[in-house]
Design goal:
Elements: E1 2-7, H1 11-22, E2 26-32, E3 48-49, E4 60-63, H2 70-75, E5 83-86, E6 101-107, E7 124-128, H3 131-144, E8 148-150, H4 153-183, H5 192-200, H6 207-210, H7 220-229, H8 235-248
Parallel strand pairs: 1-2, 1-4, 2-3, 4-5, 5-6, 7-8
Antiparallel strand pairs: 6-7
This protein binds NADP nicotinamide-adenine-dinucleotide phosphate.
Length: 251
């Protein structure tokens, strides 16, 4: 049985905790958190520790803390010849270089406390500091997902930028659309069916072919009407920049 310790108790750790507990080939040795009390979402069947000196030996240590804390946490850990990984898309592998065997285990998905995810479908982008460690990380990743890919730091950061645009930016667009409706005292739920259809149709069509609206049609009259309505609004600049980008279709 492969043993894993999760360091951190946030969204990513919570989802990995659930997945490891479901997998008969894996054992969740411990979860480390800095909070004095066990966070509510950490299962009672898990050994929760808040002191590094109480950490047991595991085959793998997953650092699931905020990106800017990975280095600090890594420096506080001594895992001997065991494998330690971080799960960040934008953090270099070398942040863990004080260890003997280290790497990256980046799941290309958005994790929250609410959604139930199908791990088998989540691409896991991996990297190891040596051949043997890469192989170990790859073998482990395959126990979680059928979409495992070796990638260097440059390729991984491109994937992370792409994920940020596709997920964070489009979600922000929905927030902006809802705010505009609310500001005008219109029910924000009216736009929900349109939002669901926007993403549903990407199963059948490429995003470039799915684009509709005044910008792709080069309909300057409608664009001007929109701009006039937004003239007093904070969304105006955003509207103009995105419209220009859709029209030129350039990166
Ligand atoms: N969420 C995603 O969609 C996603 C996707 C792919 C990769 N990742 C990566 O996963 C990692 C964790 O992200 P997350 O989304 O899980 O973040 P999160 O929900 O904000 O959780 C961050 C966790 O880090 C802990 N933490 C921060 N500083 C710490 C310190 N000095 N000592 C101990 N614990 C500390 C926090 O503890 P407290 O609860 O005590 O504050 C919290 O448990 C990041 O590297 C991120 O890039 C996230």
């Amino acid at each position: 049985m492969i043993t894993i310790t999760l360091i951190g108790t946030g969204r990513l750790s919570f989802n990995f905790m659930k997945e490891i507990l479901k997998n008969d080939s894996l054992h969740l040795n411990q979860v480390f958190g800095r909070s004095k009390f066990r966070p509510k979402h950490i299962s009672d069947e898990v050994d929760y520790v808040k002191d590094f000196k109480n950490l047991k030996t595991s085959d793998y240590y997953f650092i699931c803390v905020s990106d800017n804390q990975i280095s600090k946490i890594s420096n506080n850990l001594d895992v001997n010849d065991k494998v330690i990984v971080h799960l960040s898309g934008s953090t270099d592998i070398n942040v863990l270089s004080k260890h003997k065997n280290y790497g990256v285990f980046y799941p290309l998905q958005t994790f929250s406390y609410e959604s139930e995810l199908l791990f088998k479908e989540i691409p896991i982008l991996i990297e190891g500091n040596n051949k043997n460690t890469s192989l170990k990380i790859k073998t482990l990743a395959k126990l979680f997902s059928k979409k495992v890919k070796e990638m260097n730091g440059n390729e991984r950061i491109i994937c992370h930028i792409s994920a940020t645009i596709a997920n964070n930016f489009s979600n922000h667009m929905v927030v902006t659309a809802e705010k505009l409706l609310e500001k005008n005292k219109i029910d924000k739920n009216l736009i929900k069916p349109l939002i669901f259809e926007t993403f549903k149709k990407l199963k059948k069509t490429s995003a470039i072919d799915a684009q509709t609206g005044p910008a792709i049609r080069n309909d300057k009259e409608t664009i001007d009407k929109h701009i006039n309505h937004l003239s007093e609004s904070d969304f105006l600049n955003l509207y103009k920049i995105v419209t220009k980008n859709i029209m030129s279709n350039e990166l």
